[in-house]
Amino acid sequence: MKLKLTAGLNGWLAALGLLLSMPALYFVIANLLKYQLNVLPGMRVLPIHPALLLGGLVLAVMLNLWPLLRIVTKRMDDLLTIIISLRVRLWNLVILGLAVVTLSTLLIYVAVENFGHI
């Protein structure tokens, strides 16, 4: 019973992570299509607040790291052992990768746009 509850929770976390990533995905894809590829020159890109863009992506990363990472610490005498293991859960890994790539794209854009003129 616990396994089914955990599996369902992981699916819900993946779905929530996708939902939180959607505004940033829209913003990045729409701007790439409009300005870089010039596919949709007449399209109007809706402005999205930066807190929603970055906050949603950071929350998506955190929510999908939680079911994937397992950290165990053991102490024997003077030795502290930390074991970090990664569970393979496909949808959590997919949403995590999507959120990390989108967040990296936005951060690289900010760095190039602001520090490229120096």
Write the layout of secondary structure elements.
Blueprint: H1 2-36, H2 50-65, E1 69-76, E2 79-86, H3 90-115
Antiparallel strand pairs: 1-2
Q: Taking Cα atoms only, what radius of gyration do you get, to the nearest Å? A: 19 Å
Can you give the helix content as a percent range? 55-70%
Stretches where pLDDT falls below 50 for ≥5 residues? Answer: none
* Relative strand content: 5-15%
- The end-to-end distance, rounded to whole angstroms, is 59 Å
DSSP summary: helix tally: 3
Computed structural class: alpha+beta
Kindly give the count of domains: 1
How are strands sequenced across the largest beta sheet?
Answer: 1-2
Q: What is the makeup of the main sheet?
A: 2 strands, antiparallel
Shape: elongated
Tell me the series of helices and strands, N- to C-terminal: HHEEH
Q: Name the average pLDDT.
A: 88
Count of beta strands:
2
Any overview of this molecule?
The chain has a two-stranded antiparallel ribbon with strand order 1-2. It has helices at residues 2-36, 50-65, 90-115; strands spanning 69-76, 79-86. With 118 residues, it is α+β, with helices and mostly antiparallel strands. The chain contains 3 helices and 2 strands. Helix 1 packs antiparallel against helix 2, helix 1 (2-36) packs parallel to helix 3 and helix 2 runs antiparallel to helix 3 (90-115). The model has no long low-confidence stretch (mean pLDDT 88). The chain has one domain.
